[in-house]
Amino acid sequence: MNGNTDKILVILNAFPALGGVAKVSCLLAGAWQRLGYTVDILALRAEAGAPPATFPGRCLYLPDQRELDSPCNRAYIRQLVTEEDYRIILNQGVVTSAYLDFRDDRLHRFVNVLHGCPAWLLERPRHMSLRRQVWPSGSVKALLRYAMVKLLPCWSDRRVKRRLKTEIESSSAYVVLTESYKHQLEDWLYDGRPQERIKVIPNPVLPVPTAPAKGPVVLYAGRYTRADKHPERLLHIWKHLGKRRAGWTLRLCGEGPEEASLRRLARQLELDNVEFLPPCWDDRLYEGCSLLAQTSSFEGMSLVVLEAQAAGVVPVVFDSGPWLQTATVPGKTALVVPAFDLQAFADGLAGLMEDTPRREAMAEAARRHVGCFGPDIVAAQWTALFKSLQL
Q1: pLDDT (tens digit, 9 = 90+) per residue, 322-346?
Q2: Distance between CA atoms of 68 and 57, rounded to whole angstroms?
Q3: Helix, strand, or coil here: 201?
Q4: For residues 58 and 12, what is the distance between their CA atoms, to the nearest angstrom?
Q5: Nearest-5° angle of CA 338, CA 342, CA 348?
């Protein structure tokens, strides 16, 4: 690659967007631009309610916004890459078959990134909603797929694994967030044989120079979805705390399809000191907070857990996978609770609420720990990968 002529195209589902993938992409793009790369974003759409983009490059949009993986969009990607001569196409978790059009291309390298955990890829189809995801499309194909997943989940698993293997073998590189995910894919698809094409690069997090002011607030931040995030668990945990929550506030910051049912559950449980706030995706999110509570069943490498540690806000999380061994130091920078024991979570949360010296020591350790995930450090791992692709 040749200095300032290096060009990267980042493909996203939506931009600007509220999700962590868009934020990670902006952090990396800024670091790459400081290294002399030109970085542009290609997205399907802008997400409603997202804050204005701070991305310094160009943001382009696919022509067919009805179907992401349509022939029209694939042809557009191929033409754009050829005309603009993007040397790297970085697909940030978008479900597209565009990588197939670059299998034998020696000038342009297509890199697929898995931002979730592999187990969620198998579980997600089982949570398809007929009312929300299938029926509105009016697609007979989508309806048949929904029926097959519900009746024959093993068929869905085989289908997901076949697609994964094709994505890996047809990409110049396939990037996952932790070593454990790499080993899981190798076990699933290759009988445990190491695969050089599967690379490991973690998510970056922006350092917070000065920790925000702390107060008696427990924060939940993220999407309101039951299938993976399970924020309703946190309301039941808050109920378990009883009088131990006196003087503390539970703050839920986010949006999603379960917001109305969460508000209704809070009323049914007669919870006090519970606030529902709109999403916030900058450092103001952590102002006044001392603890982060995350009750997910599935996470890739939670950006909010990394950000909370950078801000000196101590995470309390269910043991939802080995990603926690990378993103945190369990017991020192975060409290990891056995999955999915609501009473154990309540006891652990209360212990930190009541023990200020321990909480402050963990907050300081957390800020030190996430230094290894700085954008420039993570971007250097990416540039080493780019150079290894021998363009």
Answers
A1: 999 999 999 999 999 999 999 999 9
A2: 22
A3: coil
A4: 13
A5: 65
**Tens of pLDDT along 56-106?**
789 999 999 888 899 999 999 999 999 999 999 999 999 999 999 999 998
Residue 17's contacts (CB-CB under 8 Å, 6 or more residues apart) are 43, 46, 47, 50
| Shared-domain flag, residues 196 and 221 | no
Q: Which amino acid is at 132?
A: R
CA dihedral (120, 126, 127, 133) positive or negative:
positive
pTM above 0.85, yes or no: yes
The number of distinct structural domains making up the chain is 2
Question: In sequence order, which residues have a C-beta less than 8 Å from that of residue 252 and are 6 or more positions away?
Answer: 220, 224, 231, 234, 262, 274, 275, 276, 277
In a domain, 211, yes or no: no
Phi, psi of 91 (to 5 degrees): -90, 110
188: which DSSP letter?
Answer: H
Burial class (CB within 10 angstroms; exposed 0-12, middle 13-18, buried 19+) of 17: buried
Are both 79 and 91 inside the same structural domain? Answer: yes
**Residue 210 counted as domain residue:** no
Residues 264, 271: Cα–Cα separation, whole Å: 11
b/e code 357-381 from CB counts within 10 Å (16+ = b): eebeebbebbbebbeebbbeebbee
Which residue, among 56, 49, 53, 54, has the nearest Cα to 32 in the 3D structure?
A: 56
Residues 296-312 have a mean pLDDT of 96
Query: What is the DSSP pairing of strand 7-14 with strand 217-223?
Result: unpaired
Q: What is the pLDDT, as a whole number, of residue 287?
A: 95
Assigned domain for 348 exists: yes
164 plus 243 within the same structural domain: no
CB 362 within 8 A of CB 334: yes
Q: What CATH number does the domain containing 167 carry?
A: 3.40.50.2000
Backbone angles phi, psi at 62, to 5 degrees: -70, 150
User: What pLDDT is attached to residue 280?
Assistant: 85
Q: Tokens 């925000």: give the residue.
A: 212
With contact defined as beta carbons under 8 Å apart, do 182 and 198 qualify?
A: yes
Q: What is the pLDDT of residue 135?
A: 55
> Tens digit of pLDDT for each residue in 339-387?
999 999 999 999 999 999 999 999 999 999 999 999 999 999 999 999 9
Both 256 and 194 in one domain: the answer is: no
